[in-house]
Amino acid sequence: MDILDFTPEPEQFAWTFGGVPPVRRIKPGTALRLWTEDAYCGTLRSTTDLASASLKMPFVNPQTGPFYVEGAEPGDTLVLHFVDLTPARTWGVSATIPYFGGLTSTDRTATLQDPLPERTWIYEVDSDKQTVGFQAQGSNLELALPMEPMLGTVGVAPAAGEARSSLVPDMFGGNMDTPEMRAGATCYLNVNVEGALFSVGDGHYRQGEGESCGTAVEGAMNVVLIVDLVKTPGPVWPRIENDEYLAVVGSSRPLEDAWRAGQVDMVHWLGSLYGLDKLDAYQLLSQISEVPLANVVDVNYSVVTKVPKRLLPAADAYTGIHQHLRELATTLS
């Protein structure tokens, strides 16, 4: 297996999906060892740093990539298996940002109220205990929360020559902010352009479902992943498989349309895996689905539709490539 190490220089970050030349060309079956910067580009480092003074739009959510996958053609399925996600710093950071978040006035939900006050929280990382430390600023509460690393942003170049901000989730993936994008998960994405041109970033050391204030415990991340390609029709919406679940991430506004997108694609997935007609798959999904919110703060909202494998007959999604890559991952040091 080919192994590529890549740590981007600041001038190599991508800020969009699409419209960016590839940083490297790789073959299917390649393992990548990458470094990703946090969503704030490392500018928030203490509780006195505030987003309004430190962030420079649109330079947020820097992406590592894009990578050109040789042989990837529009309509194929790009496969990304996440082997390991490890914090690259001893601290993470979260913040409230003016006019951004699920419980404040925004540009899309306009009111005459002032924005919520800005505040920045620094979370100390305890690698031995695998925790991040929450310290309240208006009281004396301190908590050690379990570290649950994930990637907020994974995606490919969109179709039709579009370039989309790395803040946006959509059919191409992007800023979905789902905790399902963790080590041991395999992500399936539809290839829209030659080479797929995928990138990853926006490491979260942990995040609650829905990402209420719009920011997780953001942090730089060391990422190990394996890239593969399946010459079968790619999914309409990003799909994720792990050892316990099949999942689809739908993104849209309003929130119910994001839910519908994931539900419809899961109906089709169940139908193709088990030979079910549309109504039977719809009925089965109605009785077994789990639907956590991924985020309700971005340009689009993201909703995850999950079905537990334990309730279903064994089936090999995408020719069983998830299990194959899980086994291949054990050979990486």
Automatic annotation (TrEMBL):
Name recorded for this polypeptide: Acetamidase
InterPro entries registered for this protein in UniProt: FmdA_AmdA (IPR004304)
GO terms assigned for molecular function: hydrolase activity, acting on carbon-nitrogen (but not peptide) bonds, in linear amides
Pfam families: FmdA_AmdA (PF03069)
PANTHER family linked: FORMAMIDASE C869.04-RELATED
